Amino acid sequence: MPRLPRKPQVELELTDPEPFPAGLHYLPGYFDETAQGALVADVRQLLVEAPLFKQSMPKSGAPLSVRMSNAGDFGWVTDREGGYRYQTVHPVTGKRWPPIPTVFLDLWQGVTSEIEPPNMCLINFYDAGARLGLHQDKGESSLEAPVVSVSLGDEATFSVGGMVRKDPVRRLRLRSGDVVWFGGPSRLIFHGVEGIRPGTSPLLEEHGFAASGRINITLRRIGR
Ligand code: MD3
Ligand code: FE
Question: I want to staple 74 with a disulfide (CB 3.0 to 4.6 A). Which of 45, 86, 151, 199 is the partner?
Fold first, then answer.
């Protein structure tokens, strides 16, 4: 039986005529190469204290392909037994998370003008096979505060949907040094990372990272 042709997927770029959802701010090339190198050095140092670890889904225990760690007062953690939660200690070392590097605090202040600093910094590491399915960031009382993200290393195909899962998704290529931040009405939009393009950036290897891939940093403020 002949198969129906697949609908072509259009890669949307900077020239995209569609406006972004209100509250989504896309700042391509925010950090230049020198600044990106300094950020990688900060992240590397942070990961010595708080190594990347494997997380798993609540109930099923299915592993996430993205390895993670955190900095700040709280970290985002998930496992089969405990489900999604914020906690003050690394689940493997049992130690408090290291402080959020100053450059990230400055970034938060510089782009959002928020008075209160972030108290949570999630570090996501994507290797060639890693992806993050479409999801909403729905953690507790963090919705009044924005989320600020920085991409470092290999390019990623980022998908941005709408307020319900079945809303159409558009794709955005996130490159090393890009900043994306989300405030107000855009905080609950579905989003995900379809995958990375291995070998598109030498940044991580150039700065002593053992593995190549992509690092994404997200800054948040959660209430407590
Ligand atoms: C849109 N991280 O950690 S960052 C996550 O590239 C996450 O690692 C992705 O989604 C990554 O939860 C995307 C961009 C981002 C972060 C937070 C958002 C997009 C968002 C919150 C609301 C809507
Ligand atoms: Fe997210």
Answer: 86
| CATH-assigned architecture of domain 24-220 | Sandwich (2.60)
Closest CA to 125 of 154, 89, 105: 154
pLDDT on residue 174: 98
Say how many Å lie between the CA of residue 192 and the centre of ligand 2: 7
Instruction: Give CA–CA dist 135/112, Å, rounded.
Output: 23
145: exposed, middle or buried (C-beta count within 10 Å: 0-12, 13-18, 19+)?
Answer: buried
Nearest CA among 160, 177, 134, 195 for reference residue 33: 177
Q: Whose CA is nearest to atom 15 of ligand 1?
A: 149
pTM: 0.91
- Domain parsing of the chain, residue ranges: 24-220
